[in-house]
Write a structure and sequence with these properties.
This protein has 178 residues and is an all-alpha fold. It contains one helix and no strands.
């Protein structure tokens, strides 16, 4: 009976060992399944990491290009601001020069108008004097005596008034008119 008890204990131990082995195998299968899932997840994460690295490289490249464009734009803007400043300065100088030229132009216009007035007056005076000289020459040719006053003799009779208008300005030649 001892043998039976030993066999029973051995069967019981064998059953317990088989049960433990079965549970261990189930755990191994479960762990392998979890390991496969984790490896699959790991592959997905690696693919995502690679995609992110690629995206990061593209973004870094785009960032560098944008940075260079920004630097170029800043340089161009600074050059444009400087050019605008120079143009504004030149515009101010040109406006000052234009104002000076306008004042000079107005001054010249006034001088021309004054000059024309003086020449017009002198021309009228000369025309009147020429007319007087021509009339006096005509009288001289006719044999009449010219009314030339002599300082030592006083005039005997008053002279008749001339029909021509008296000159308005200074006369170039001082000859009395009739």
């Amino acid at each position: 009976m001892l043998e039976t008890a030993v066999v029973a204990v051995a069967f019981f131990a064998l059953g317990f060992t088989l049960l433990s082995l079965r549970r261990a195998q189930e755990k191994v299968v479960s762990l392998e399944s979890d390991l496969d899932a984790i490896e699959g997840h790991n592959r997905t994460l690696q693919e995502q990491r690679d995609a992110l690295k690629s995206t990061l490289a593209e973004t870094t490249g785009a960032h560098e290009v944008a940075k260079k464009r920004l630097e170029t734009s800043e340089t161009e803007r600074a050059a444009a601001v400087e050019a605008a400043s120079r143009l504004e300065k030149v515009r101010g100088e040109l406006e000052g020069e234009l104002a000076r030229v306008r004042r000079e132009h107005e001054s010249l216009e006034r001088r021309v108008v004054d000059f024309q007035g003086q020449w017009s007056h002198q021309l009228n005076t000369l025309e009147a004097e020429i007319s007087t000289v021509v009339r006096q020459l005509g009288e001289f040719r006719k044999g009449t005596q010219l009314p030339i006053p002599r300082p030592d003799v006083a005039p005997a009779a008053p002279q008749p008034a001339s029909t021509e208008p008296a000159p308005l300005g200074p006369r170039l030649a001082r000859t009395p008119s009739r």
